[in-house]
Amino acid sequence: MLVDIDLRITFLTPFTVGTGAMGETQTNKPTIKDALQRPIIPGSALKGRLRHTCERLARSLLNDDDAVCHAPNPATTCPLETQGQDQYCLVCRLFGSPRRPSSLRFTDLHWLEPVTAAPTLIRSGVSINRRRRVAEPQRLYDLEVVDPLDVVYRGHITGHLNEDEGQALIALLLGGLHSLTTLGGGRGSGLGRCAIQSQARIDRRLVDEAWRRDGLLRLQNGGVNLWRS
Ligand SMILES: [Zn+2]
Q1: C-alpha 14 to ligand 1 mean position (Å)
Q2: Domain 2-67+103-228 belongs to what topology?
Q3: What are the pLDDT digits (tens) for 2-18?
Q4: Which of 33, 35, 133, 173 has the most CB atoms at less than 10 Å from its CB?
Q5: Which of 144, 125, 123, 124 has the alpha carbon at shortest distance from 38?
């Protein structure tokens, strides 16, 4: 089945998605931008967080800590061998693993409206030594954050899933999206709080709440193999 999920993300607090490198801005922690200098959220950043919420949801729905593999430790990450066959868990069948490509493609998230000036601010921060709970004087930094006023981000998740398990896997994915309330860095200091709206189409037809609930029930009632090759 063909999957297309339309995402609209509204930020409630400023957010930042670090590049991990020095940019051309007056800060040592710039946020990622497109060619027009507009801040974006890379698809990989959403994918990583969403994978995590889907893992938690699957474990809680199935009431089993081992319902999905335990990434990123290679010894406990798919493929896991059972009876001489490489098996992949639900989450790896959606998001992929080092030896299996993802069934889904995550586009980068962009501003919906054309905005010319990037509404970013520089925030000064201080690294806190978590063990001693004191500020470390040598570790001051400037963090570039995006001011979220009136900014709506839009992106897509697209892909192709097997007919026999697609409904349950997409229901899990939509459930994970529903419980995702922050994106980007600095979540501990209140950055990146967001509201995500999603509209899913399967084979170009809009799915409703009953379809999603039915998919989760199938998953819970053993209607889908938890592991398969
Ligand atoms: Zn796995």
Answers
A1: 33
A2: Alpha-Beta Plaits (3.30.70)
A3: 999 999 999 999 988 88
A4: 173
A5: 144
